[in-house]
Amino acid sequence: MAGHAGRGIDASRRLRRQGDGRAAASLPMKISPRPARLAGRSTLVLLAGLACPQALAARLDVRVIDDRGTGMADAVVSVIAGAPSAAPPGTRAAIDQRDRRFAPGVIAVQRGTAVSFPNSDDVRHHVYSFSRPNDFQIRLYHGESSEPVTFEHRGIVSLGCNIHDGMVGFIAVVDTPHFATSGTGGTLSIDGLPPGRHELDVWHPDAGWSETTVLIEPATQTVRRTLVLTPAMAPPAAANPLQSLFGD
Ligand SMILES: [Cu+2]
Q1: Kind of pairing between the strands at 187-193 and 179-181
Q2: Domains of the chain, with CATH numbers?
Q3: 117 vs 247, higher pLDDT
Q4: 178-222: per-residue pLDDT in tens?
Q5: I need a labelling partner for 88 at 20 to 30 A (CA). Which of 69, 123, 159, 231 fits?
Q6: Considering the entire predicted model, what is its pTM?
Q7: CB of 111 within 8 A of CB of 155?
Q8: What pLDDT is stored for residue 152 in this prediction?
Q9: CA 188: distance to chain centroid?
């Protein structure tokens, strides 16, 4: 992904074009959307950074907000600090199915993670994804599914259920060990970051992919960043199946 087309757009020019006065007043930075993966325009803005001395590996504290300042849950942030890598063998994760919802509705895993899809409902579900090359399906089942699904390719896996159209979920497959998903309030932390300027990717169901960079100074202990995402669309509440899952 390093060096893909579109990187290095001058941030101030982009932001001026978008007429975002507040964002334009922030510090200069490199920023670029990821057109190939983006459902719509998305904007990522650096608001603040803070460094504390004395540590080799730093922690990144992130708050993801929308353009009204509201914290956005279910944002996946990953930092590319080194060569792409798969999860250690045996790494597991799970998405439950409760009350005809995927729970949680968004998870992030490192490539190579085996994800199980237990069904805690008293109805059968038929979980599938058309997201090639991570596509799969688990035919109608109750309780524990027979085999977990190992996701070998970086990208977003959109989940559905063949029985219940309203069930929507996502797995963000990353190829770095440095990632986290924002909870209520839009906050997350990523530990163990080495010094250097690293690519920082963020994905959200309503905003697609964006990327920027994060600078970890050699003596940095904690870096704090606020990332502003502009949802790609704002459909009427009743017409948006994602809203009940991801609304804040
Ligand atoms: Cu179902």
Answers
A1: unpaired
A2: 11-79+181-231 (2.60.40.10), 92-174 (2.60.40.420)
A3: 117
A4: 999 999 999 999 999 999 999 999 999 999 999 999 999 998 899
A5: 159
A6: 0.73
A7: no
A8: 97
A9: 11
Closest CA to 195 of 29, 56, 30, 67: 56
CA 168, CA 105: separation in Å to the nearest integer?
7
pLDDT, residue 237, reads 44
C-alpha 163 to ligand 1 mean position (Å): 5
Residues with Cβ within 8 Å of 25's Cβ and at least 6 positions away in sequence, in order, are: none
What's at 243, amino acid-wise? Q
Give the distance (Å) from ligand 1 centre to CA of residue 125.
4
And the tokens for 245?
């899952």
Q: Residue 162 class from Cβ within 10 Å (0-12 exposed, 13-18 middle, 19+ buried)? A: middle
Q: What is the C-alpha separation between 205 and 150, in angstroms, rounded?
A: 22
Cα-to-centroid distance, 99 and ligand 1 (Å)? 9
**From ligand 1's centre to the CA of 83, what distance in Å?**
38
> CA angle, corner 16, sides to 12 and 17, nearest 5?
120
At 159-181, the pLDDT tens digits run: 999 999 999 999 999 999 999 99
Pairing label, strands 58-66, 222-229: parallel
Residue given tokens 């986290």 in the structure block: 180
* pLDDT tens-digit readout, 101-142: 999 999 999 999 999 999 999 999 999 999 999 999 998 877
